[in-house]
Amino acid sequence: MGDFNIHMNTPSDPQCVALQTIIDSCGLTQIIHEPTHRNGNTIDLVLVRGVTTSKVMILPYTKVMSNHYLIKFEVLTHCQQANNNNNCYSGRNINAATTMTLADLLPLVMAPFPNYVGSIDNLTNNFDDDLREIIDSIAPLKQKRAPKRRTPWFTEEIRAHKLSCRKLERKWRATKLEVFHQAWSDSLITYKRMLTLAKAKYYSNLIRLNKNDPKFLFSTVASLTQQGTPPSSSTHSADDFMNFFNKKIELIRKEIKDNASQLQLGSINTNTTVCTTDTALQNSLSIFDEITLEELLQRVSGIKQTTCLLDPLPGKLIKELFVLLGPSVLNIINLPLSSGTFSKIAMRFVKPNIMTTAPDITKIDFADRDNQKYDKDLYIGSECRDYLSHHRENCDLPAFFSSVRRFYSGTCSYMMASFPFGDPVLVNARFLDIQNRQQCKFSQVTVIERYPHFLSKDDRKNVEEEFFMYQCDSLCAAIAEAERVDSAWHEFAKLKDTATRKTKYEALFKVAKSVLVMYHSNADCERIFSHVNKN
Question: I need a labelling partner for 268 at 20 to 30 A (CA). Which of 363, 406, 465, 467 fits?
Fold first, then answer.
């Protein structure tokens, strides 16, 4: 049952023919034969097999909820309650020793994650896999049997009387004397009376102590009657539920509209000057600020200690060891906000011919509408585009696409103002690309002038000659096949002069290493200042 998005009202449509063939081959029956969409097409289907349906109704509803119609039908089926006699479940033995062992192993396991700069999906998957692997090695999942039902009213006095009753029963069964049978009967009646009174007293005290907690009282009654919460006897229909959600959506939209109206007013000065919509919303969603480790720790310390089946570690351990997990989790949160390159952002709203013909994309006027794509070509994501196509009549498309343009242009402006695009060292770092070394010039090795302390006087004399040799030297397989530039330079540093047997590119390798070890950001430095409360 659902939106198949295939026009079943057009039997000649190839997709309709293919779907009908699949339905017939599976022994299913399609019971919807009327339009289910405002455009008059039958695209919402209900497929049944082995059940009886009746009272099929298709009711058009307000556009606020959806442009699809409501389908109502009744189905007669037999529901059988599963009888689960197996009270087993999977669990881990978590104790103080587990926490201590994890605390010892986590620093080594978490070491690569705080400075990871690759794919956020790979980072998240590796983070989860490593945590699951380490917890499985320390506290593996084991099958456990649920404990028997607790009986706190069963006191030692009642237990002693039960043992006495069982002794009298064994005597009677062994001797078959009427005196022991009568004694056993009297003892059994007394035992049942004691048990009933103790149980009643226990629950009376429990209800008295929790008389202001209706949820606890209802769950207690349900446990006493050996049944769950009885189904509601309400006569609400599907129409009532639809009307409820319809009104709820209308209320949410009204609140958004009221908030937008207040935002448009902006700040009113003494002359009652009102800001325009463009001015009030100009800076909305222009940048995303990364959070700090202190903010993350504060958030985590205030959340409930709950656990989901998808969590790599139990919630209790995550909170207790979050000081060790925090930097890695912080990178997972901040990486998506900082990993988008400038060109990836620009290509989402700038025309391709402008991107390809510009000698330097940082010099493009991103706010110029002539350089931007048309509304239909802007990148907004498939889900957003599908939503707009189904709710076009309820959306202010010009205002929406105007906000998208402001967001992208504001992001590019922020990146140009914040990122070191024109830094000479970074611009000329292309000499590190060994495959294209012949196109480089020695003047690009500007790191020597900017950081003269990297090289000694003798190295400064040799670096230019080594650079020219570097351009003409042949590459061995280990260098040519290296996937990363730092790996290639690691192999390059091993090259020896055939005559002197000394390192062939000692000075040039020092320059390359100085550039490669530069931090990609100042996050580590800021983290240190945050730890010592100096920021």
Answer: 406
Q: Model's pTM, two decimal places?
A: 0.38
Q: For residue range 497-518, what is the model confidence (pLDDT) as tens digits?
A: 777 778 888 888 888 877 777 7
Going by C-alpha positions, the residue among 134, 148, 143 that lies closest to residue 92 is 143
Question: Which residue type, as a one-letter code, is found at position 63?
Answer: K
Q: Which residues lie below 8 Å from residue 504, measured CB to CB, with a gap of 6+?
A: 466, 469, 473, 495, 496, 497
Encoding tokens for residue 382? 């498939």
**Residue 115 neighbours by CB under 8 Å, 6+ apart:** 331, 524
Burial class (CB in 10 A: 0-12, 13-18, 19+), 113: buried
State the residue for tokens 């119609």: 69
Over the Cα atoms of the chain, what is R_g? 37
CB 127, CB 164: distance < 8 Å: no
d(CA 413, CA 362): 9
Q: How many helices (H) and strands (E) does the chain have?
A: 22, 8
What is the SS3 assignment for 466-526? HHHHHHHCCCCHHHHCCCCHHHHHHHHCCCECCCCCCECCHHHHHHHHHHHCCCCCCHHHH
* Residue 510: count of CB within 10 angstroms of its CB: 16
Query: How many residues appear in the chain?
Result: 535
Residue 361's closest CA among 415, 433, 401?
415
Placement of tokens 């539920």 in the chain: 241
Q: In angstroms, rounded to a whole number, what is the distance separating the alpha carbons of residues 427 and 441?
A: 13
CA 159/CA 299 separation, integer angstroms: 50
Express each pLDDT in 24-47 by its tens digit: 878 788 888 888 888 888 888 888
Q: What SS3 class is residue 74?
A: strand
Residue 528 near residue 522 (C-beta atoms within 8 A):
no
